[in-house]
C-alpha cells in the first residue's frame, strides 16, 4: 500500500467513476483499475462493487476511506511543514449557498486575494454541505442554519441573518400592516430548492400555523425568485441581505407576519480532524475579521432564530 494508491482510492471513493478519477489524476483508466485491484489484493477485501456501469463503495471501502483521509492529511501536513513559504500559496475549496457567495463573501475574497495573491479559492456548490465537509470534498463551509452541533466539526458563529417574507408592492398582502395567518392561506409561494435551511424554517412555520400554501414553484436561483416575485407571480421568503437593493428601490415589499420575526445563524465550519494548511488558516482569519465586522454593523445576535420557535 502506497500514497499513490491511497490517493487514487480516495478520489474514486468520492467520484465513484473510474473515468473521472483517471481524468482528475491525469492517469489512463487502466492505471486506476490496476491500482485499485492491487490495493484490494493486498488488503484481501473488496473495496468497490461494480454493478453494470455503477461503482459503489463497500463497507470495507468506507472503513478504509476514513483512514485514507487521515493518512493523506498527515502527508499534506508534513509536505507543507517542510516546504515553508512566506508567500502563502495553495488552493482552498469552499462551500457556501448562493446568497452568501453573492452578498457576504465578496469582501472576504477581495481582502484575502489582496493579502495572498498567490493563493487560489475554489467555490464548489454542494446540496449537502455537512456531508461534503465530512467527506473532505471541501475545506471550509459557510452555512445559514440553526446552530450546528457536531463533534466532527469546528463551528464558529459569525452573526445572525434576518429572513423576510416578500411580495411585489402591488400584491394585495403588501397593503396589510400586520398580516394574520389566515391572510396567507392558499397563497402561491416561490421557494428555494428542498433542503435549503431557510425554506425548511418557513415551511415549518406554515405547518405550525396550519397554512395550506401552494409551494409548487421551486428555484435553484435566488435571482430568479426575486424576478418572479417582482413580476407578481407569488410570495417568497429570503434572507434580507439578498433583497436590500430591491427593498430600497421599492421593487419588493417586506410583509409583516404577525408574531413572526425570523433569524437564522451564519456559521463557518471546518473538519476537526482535517489538517489546516497555513493558507486555510489565513483564510479563516480573514473571513472572521471581515464577516463579524459586517454582521455586527447590521445584526442583533441576541435575537432568537424565530420568535415562534
UniProtKB/TrEMBL annotation:
Pfam families: HTH_1, LysR_substrate
SUPFAM superfamilies hit by this protein: Periplasmic binding protein-like II (SSF53850), Winged helix' DNA-binding domain (SSF46785)
Organism taxonomic ancestry: Bacteria, Bacillati, Chloroflexota, Ktedonobacteria, Ktedonobacterales
InterPro entries in the record: LysR_HTH_N (IPR000847), LysR_subst-bd (IPR005119), WH-like_DNA-bd_sf (IPR036388), WH_DNA-bd_sf (IPR036390)
Official protein name in the record: LysR family transcriptional regulator
Calcium is among the record's keywords: no
Family: Belongs to the LysR transcriptional regulatory family.
Keywords, ordered alphabetically: DNA-binding, Transcription, Transcription regulation
CDD domains associated with the record: PBP2_LTTR_substrate (cd05466)
Gene3D superfamilies: 3.40.190.290, Winged helix-like DNA-binding domain superfamily/Winged helix DNA-binding domain
Amino acid at each position: 500500500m502506497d500514497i499513490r494508491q491511497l490517493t487514487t482510492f480516495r478520489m474514486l471513493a468520492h467520484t465513484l467513476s473510474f473515468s473521472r478519477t483517471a481524468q482528475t489524476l491525469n492517469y489512463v483508466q487502466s492505471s486506476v483499475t490496476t491500482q485499485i485491484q492491487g490495493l484490494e489484493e493486498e488488503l484481501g477485501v473488496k473495496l468497490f462493487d461494480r454493478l453494470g456501469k455503477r461503482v459503489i463503495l463497500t463497507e470495507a471501502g468506507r472503513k478504509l476511506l476514513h483512514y485514507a483521509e487521515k493518512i493523506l492529511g498527515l502527508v499534506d501536513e508534513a509536505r507543507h511543514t517542510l516546504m515553508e513559504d512566506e508567500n502563502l500559496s495553495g488552493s482552498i475549496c469552499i462551500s457556501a449557498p448562493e446568497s452568501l457567495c453573492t452578498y457576504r463573501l465578496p469582501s472576504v475574497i477581495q481582502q484575502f486575494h489582496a493579502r495572498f495573491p498567490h493563493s487560489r479559492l475554489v467555490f464548489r456548490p454542494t446540496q449537502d454541505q455537512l456531508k461534503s465537509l465530512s467527506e473532505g470534498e471541501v475545506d471550509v463551509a459557510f452555512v445559514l442554519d440553526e446552530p450546528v452541533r457536531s463533534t466532527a466539526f469546528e463551528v464558529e458563529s459569525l452573526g445572525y441573518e434576518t429572513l423576510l417574507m416578500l411580495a411585489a408592492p402591488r400584491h394585495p398582502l403588501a397593503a396589510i400592516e400586520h398580516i394574520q395567518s389566515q391572510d396567507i392561506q392558499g397563497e402561491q409561494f416561490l421557494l428555494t430548492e428542498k433542503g435549503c435551511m431557510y425554506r425548511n424554517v418557513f415551511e415549518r412555520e406554515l405547518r405550525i400555523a396550519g397554512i395550506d400554501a401552494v409551494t409548487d414553484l421551486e428555484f435553484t436561483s435566488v435571482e430568479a425568485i426575486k424576478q418572479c416575485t417582482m413580476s407578481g407571480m407569488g410570495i417568497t421568503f429570503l434572507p434580507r441581505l439578498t433583497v436590500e437593493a430591491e427593498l430600497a428601490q421599492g421593487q419588493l415589499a417586506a410583509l409583516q407576519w404577525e408574531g413572526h420575526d425570523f433569524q437564522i445563524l451564519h456559521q463557518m465550519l471546518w473538519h476537526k480532524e482535517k489538517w489546516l494548511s497555513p493558507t486555510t488558516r489565513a483564510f479563516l482569519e480573514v473571513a472572521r475579521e471581515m464577516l463579524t465586522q459586517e454582521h455586527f454593523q447590521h445584526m442583533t445576535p441576541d435575537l432568537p432564530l424565530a420568535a415562534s420557535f
